[in-house]
Amino acid sequence: MAQSSIIPRIGFGTYRLKDQQVIDSVKSALELGYRHIDTAQVYDNEQPVGEGIRQSGVPRDEIFLTTKVWWDRFRHDDLIASLEESCRKLGVDRLDLALIHWPSPDDEVPMAEYIGALDAAREKGLTRHIGVSNFTMAHLDEAVSVPGGEHLITNQIEVHPFLANRRLVAHSQARGLEVTGYMPLAVGKVMNEPVLQQIADDHDATPAQIALAWVAAQGIAVIPSSTKPEHQRANLAALELTLSEDDMARIEHLDVGERIANPDFAPRWDT
Question: Is 43 marked active-site?
Answer without folding.
Answer: yes
